[in-house]
Amino acid sequence: MDLLDDADAFFPALLDAIANAEKSINLLFYIDSPGARVDQVHDALIAAVKRGVTVRLLVDAVGSKPLLKNRQAMHALKSAGVQVSAALPVHFPRQLFARVDIRNHRKLVVIDSKIAFTGSMNLADPTVFKKSANVGRWVDIMARVRGPAVHALDLLFALDWCVEHDDENLHAARPKNPETPGGIPIQILSSGPGDDPDDLRRVLLQSIYAAREEIVISTPYFVPDDTLLTSLITASLRGVDVTIIVPDRVDSKLVAHASRSYYDDLIAAGVHIRHFTLGLLHAKTAVIDNRLTLIGSANLDRRSLWINFELSLFAHDESTAAAMRKIQNRYIAASMPITIDTWGRRPLHWRLIDNAAQLLAPIL
Question: How does DSSP classify residue 208?
Answer without folding.
Answer: H
